[in-house]
């Protein structure tokens, strides 16, 4: 995979830059700028190189139709302020655009093409669409790792028609993920939460052979607690998971990895109740498991203390209610307290929201906003965006 950093003479070159600017919008305002902040370095880099930049991205799921609420206009305006430069949003039909149309004004350095998913050909990975996009530029950069699990025209097919390179953020993401999959510093621990074990089964099975500890928390842990013969009351659970859990424990037999799940929990009769500490052998029919208990938390903190690398995806409980957020907050603090003696990677929207809430986001070595691409990479799948650049 070639890096844009290693390319000489980008001066005046027209560069098609694929970004992921799929940020949450409410009434035309951006409610979370994390993804935008992560792509500023590549724009600054190309400005310094005096390149002509054509940005392509998507917002939401317009399914091939023009939806005004999903315009890139507010995102353009946000980036303009951040880099203190004028950006022109090109609203014309992409099929009618020609290379010479884009920078008629010599002062233009950055243009945005309107939401690429306004064209049904994008998600169909259409060859002609990719070829037409390629005709607008001299070279292509993918700095949208978080879209790279999609076989879409501006991610996958386009590399057939232009010299193609990985962007700065793309490389940073891959580098961080390699440190928790192939270039591991041991002991290594994975803390994995969320409500559905079915979405994470592939990751758990893939990591068992590489990791020393896999700690399962959140709603997923309820399925394991139940599988082990305990009651879980009215707690969140996923149906028909026993075979999957059996697979996990079967895979464990041939590896030295340990699976850790709660010994004690915090329960309530409803989501707003006062927390009660209970052993997992003592859950009543009307109890709802909403967080990990103090014994479990101490065990997790001890494992983190003895780890060199930690991967964390998914909160430990119902953190939206502060009474049941203690497990998640204490895990975040335990990881971040190790300063430079641990390499920490965190991913998943809820986990990022959680560490943002307690202002610890800067204390993690790498925070991935890549969602599906992050999980599929951990699962060991080949991502179309990476394959295309290779």
Strand content: 15-25%
End-to-end separation in angstroms reads 5 Å
Named CATH topology of the largest domain: Rossmann fold
Please identify which CATH superfamily of the largest domain we are dealing with. Answer: Phosphoglycerate kinase, N-terminal domain
| Average pLDDT number | 94
Point out poorly predicted stretches.
none
Number of domains: 2
CATH architecture of the largest domain, by name, is: 3-Layer(aba) Sandwich
Radius of gyration: 23 Å
Main structural class: alpha/beta
Strand tally, please?
17
CATH hierarchy class name of the largest domain: Alpha Beta
- Cα shape: elongated
> In what order do the strands lie side by side in the largest sheet?
5-6-4-1-7-8
- Measured as a percent range, the helix fraction is 25-40%
- Give the ordered list of helices and strands: EEEHEHEEHHEEHEHEHHEEEEHEHEHEHH
Main sheet overview: 6 strands, parallel
Word description of this protein:
With 390 residues, the protein is α/β, with parallel strands linked by helices. The chain contains 13 helices and 17 strands. The strands form four sheets. The chain has a six-stranded parallel beta sheet with strand order 5-6-4-1-7-8. Strands 11-10-9-15-16-17 form a six-stranded parallel beta sheet, sandwiched between helices. Strand 2 and strand 3 (29-30) form a beta hairpin. The protein starts with 13 loop residues before the first strand and ends with a helix.
